[in-house]
């Protein structure tokens, strides 16, 4: 058989098939972690250990493709970043760097960004429908009742088969963001869908953070529908990037200053006592666990002396460490600047909403694998152009 045919068949068929299958298993792990089902047989099946092996295997599949294509210099850079991800994981047991940056980078070498959006949207939607349907049919994985206490009453919060009511809002918010990003055109009544989901998340699981983000997404989609032809032109990408990076540093600094100096405590507590609890628990987490360069393995369980830390701006430096957190912040700034510079306002709006959501909840979880797809896709095209130019000489 023709060796060239075998080479192309391996790169175009076999590697993508295995890569897609492994990505499916990773998604299943990430999704199961948000349900009570994940905690009942998750450890029993050693699913976590299996998925830890999957990531290096995905990397090896990618390396074989690069070796076959003889991109040796590029291989060195890829190995370097994988080592960086592995060092971070060795300290914190977190795959944040790999799942949010490296995995999309690998996937985009085999699949188009539209196909990844399409798969993520329908996979997550089907998973949500299955878990919620099982709960509605009485096959719930937990009998725990969640309540939100008000001044003179309480509200029952439905978890719909998920581990916590906030996980319902979290799931629907991610599905909505992917739906918003995957289409080039904002459909006529998209804002109605997002607004309906916002009210659903507020009344059923009573998840305020996700409900607010979905409401803002409905407003953004409404405005984008009627004012999509507005373009703001900038002459220098470096200036835009520097301004955004400086603004993000100020944003994170302000959150830390509020938490550590009790600024606006009465005002924030009046709006939401839960939001202020995020700040105070974040401060307590920093004081108790400290911040390491490459993160640390800690337990949030009360029986282990821990406590929940939800805000991205505290949990990321505590768990993932200072270096990965700075990398995330710089890349987030680059993604925002690139989105503005390329007129990808839908993407910019989603990033800003994630930035806001991160005040009270986490945006560094693996299900946010979609977050940097457009930016990474742009970087891949730049790299491919440079490789093509270097091969021309």
UniProtKB/TrEMBL annotation:
Q: Does the keyword Protein transport apply?
A: no
Ordered alphabetically, the record's keywords are: Membrane, Transmembrane, Transmembrane helix
In terms of domain of life, where is this protein from? Bacteria
Could you list the residue ranges that cross the membrane? 14-32, 44-62, 74-90, 120-142, 162-181, 210-227, 239-261, 314-336, 348-373
Signal peptide start and end residues: none
Q: Does the keyword Iron apply?
A: no
**Which named protein is this?**
O-antigen ligase like membrane protein
């Amino acid at each position: 058989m023709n060796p060239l045919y075998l080479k192309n068949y391996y790169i175009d068929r076999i590697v993508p098939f295995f890569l897609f299958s492994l990505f499916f298993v990773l998604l299943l792990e990430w999704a199961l972690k948000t349900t009570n089902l994940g905690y009942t047989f998750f450890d029993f099946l050693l699913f976590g250990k299996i998925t830890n092996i999957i990531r290096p295997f995905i990397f090896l599949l990618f390396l074989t493709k690069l070796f076959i294509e003889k991109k040796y210099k590029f291989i060195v850079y890829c190995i370097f970043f994988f080592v960086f991800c592995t060092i971070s994981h060795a300290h914190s047991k977190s795959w944040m760097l790999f799942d949010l940056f490296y995995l999309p980078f690998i996937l985009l070498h085999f699949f188009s960004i539209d196909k990844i959006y399409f798969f993520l949207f329908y996979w997550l939607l089907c998973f949500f429908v299955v878990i919620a349907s099982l709960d509605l049919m009485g096959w719930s994985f937990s009998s725990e009742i969640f309540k939100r206490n008000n001044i003179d009453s309480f509200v029952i919060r439905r978890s719909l088969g998920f581990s916590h009511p906030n996980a319902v809002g979290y799931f629907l918010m991610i599905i909505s963001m992917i739906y918003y990003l995957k289409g080039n055109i904002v459909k006529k009544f998209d804002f109605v869908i997002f607004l309906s989901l916002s009210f659903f998340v507020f009344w059923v699981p009573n998840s305020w953070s996700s409900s607010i983000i979905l409401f803002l997404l409905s407003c953004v989609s409404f405005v984008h529908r009627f004012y999509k032809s507005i373009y703001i032109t900038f002459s220098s990408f470096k200036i835009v990037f520097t301004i955004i990076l400086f603004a993000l540093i100020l944003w994170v600094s302000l959150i830390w200053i509020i938490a550590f100096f009790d600024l606006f405590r009465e005002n924030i507590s009046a709006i939401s006592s839960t939001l202020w609890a995020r700040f105070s628990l974040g401060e307590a987490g920093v004081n108790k666990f400290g911040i390491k360069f490459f993160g640390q393995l800690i337990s949030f369980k009360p029986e282990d002396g821990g406590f929940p830390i939800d805000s991205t701006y505290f949990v990321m430096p505590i768990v993932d460490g200072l270096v990965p957190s700075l990398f995330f912040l710089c890349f987030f700034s680059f993604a925002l600047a690139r989105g503005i510079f390329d007129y990808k306002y839908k993407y910019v709006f989603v990033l800003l909403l994630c930035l806001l959501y991160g005040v009270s909840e986490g945006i560094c979880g693996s299900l946010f694998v979609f977050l940097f797809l457009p930016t990474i896709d742009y970087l891949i095209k730049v790299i491919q152009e440079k490789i093509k130019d270097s091969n021309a000489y």
